[in-house]
Amino acid sequence: MLGLMLVRLEPLDPSHLPHVMTWVNDRDVVQYFANRQTPITEDEERAYLETLVASKVDRAYSIYFASEYVGQCSINQIYWPAKNGRVFIAIGKKHQGRGVGPSALEQLIDRAWHELDLHKLWLIVRKDNRSAQAMYLKLGFDFEGVLADEYCVNGRYFDMVRMGLVRKG
Q: Could you give the maximum distance between any two Cα atoms of the chain, in Å?
């Protein structure tokens, strides 16, 4: 895995829009995202980023490998009374499989526990995306259940697996 020093998270800023646009319309990257099935314009993504940055229940970060932008990660839908939030990560195609995702998620988890004081992180991942599940398992997430026919992408239904990670101590 890449050293944490090579992978760094930077709070998302609307000025990161040109970087974000490098992957939001890449079918290989967004094929697993049910809500990203039609092309997104720069104006639409700019509006979304501005909303995300201003949100009280989302914390989003750009991921850099050395000085190169490689993707996004976030904790969304933070439910402050229970101190839990949903994990999201997207890595540009040319950087996938190089250890960037696990390194970024380790940092995101650290921020969840130490900066946000969250108790639990959760995510859903397509049941057929075994490589992502393996990554989450290595980071300490565990299976919580299967959501049958949860996502519909291009008219095809997919089962999703919910995974969670509870803060220890």
A: 44
